[in-house]
Design a protein that fits this description.
Length: 190
């Protein structure tokens, strides 16, 4: 193999060779330094996923969790009380998933805001079922999902048979997370 300086010298006078070398080095740096370490053996890492949903798709998602307590949170990135409540809901899921809680989030943002919604979810490690309403912002989505007061945040708590047991309608105000957690704990205890 030739010495390293024998390889470098021909690059000085050749712009095409310099560009090719820069691309190779850049690619190696990207591949080598940009990778995250693999999780330890036996440790799966959940990813944040955001899908578009209509009312039928949401009903299907709730039914897939049959046998668990399901908390559905309707929220939006532009809703201050929603942004304040969401981290507590995500923490509740992490803490109570092993006892049978499943959280589903439905963003009522416009579909064009998908990237902002995804960044928010990823920032809160929301590895549960996350959806963005196919109806966008407006009354059609609120009507389709049964958000009766047309205000966010809005939460619905389902029992293990998929029946709504409690609704937390905010009227556009903040909701007391303690009340939500208490209702979840009660259903988990049944």
């Amino acid at each position: 193999m030739p010495p390293l300086n024998a390889l470098i010298v021909p690059l000085r006078g050749n712009p095409l060779a310099r560009a090719a070398a820069a691309a190779v080095v850049g690619g190696l740096l990207f591949l080598g330094c940009g990778r995250q370490a693999a999780p330890p053996a036996g440790k799966a890492t959940a990813e944040v996923v955001l899908r578009t949903v209509d009312s039928r798709g949401l009903n299907d998602a709730i039914q897939r969790h049959r046998g668990k307590i399901v908390l559905v949170e309707f929220w939006a990135t532009w809703c201050v009380p929603c942004v304040q409540l969401f981290p507590r809901t995500a923490e509740l899921q992490r803490r109570l998933a092993d006892r049978g809680l499943a959280v589903i989030s439905v963003s009522m943002d416009d579909v064009e805001q998908r990237e902002a919604v995804f960044r928010f979810l990823r920032g809160h490690h929301a590895t549960f079922d996350n959806y963005i309403s196919s109806y966008g912002i407006g009354s059609e989505g609120f009507d389709a999902f049964g958000v009766s007061d047309g205000a966010l945040p809005h939460l619905k708590l389902y029992d293990r048979n998929g029946q709504v047991q409690k609704t937390f309608a905010s009227g556009g105000q903040s909701l007391a997370h303690e009340n939500i957690e208490s209702a979840v704990e009660e259903l988990l205890g049944r």
